Amino acid sequence: MATSVSPEELVITVDVNTAKDLVSSGHLYLDVRTHEEFDKGHLENSIVVPYLFITPQGREKNPQFLEQVLSVCKMEDNIIVGCRSGVRSLEASAELLNAGFKSIKNMEGGYIAWVANGFSVKQPQESV
């Protein structure tokens, strides 16, 4: 019988400074926040595939998450996964590793930590 491994045991988590260096060196950045969160601000050149949706019933996992990631990333891509604070991205990272992705790292602290460190973000244009 297979033992269940927690996401914390399976996933390599890197701090925001390391994540920034990895993204600068060519790693893809997969943002697993909702489209609404993403539209309020995100890392340059990030790919958005929501891991959860906010519904009237609460948070629900995106049933097409893996399929959608596979449509924009390859199994062998070097990918940094981020969300708002690091919780969803940890779960999403574990799911991607379990699905056979080879090089997945979770960004600790998520978008909040990225912004708190003063790193560059793309924000919506203000209308005049």
From TrEMBL:
GO MF annotations in UniProt: catalytic activity
Highest rank taxon of the organism: Eukaryota
CDD domains for the chain: RHOD
Alphabetized InterPro entries for the sequence: Rhodanese-like_dom (IPR001763), Rhodanese-like_dom_sf (IPR036873), STR17/STR18/HARC1-like (IPR044684)
Pfam families recorded: Rhodanese
Protein name as it appears in the record: Rhodanese-like domain-containing protein
Rhodanese domain ranges (all copies): 23-123
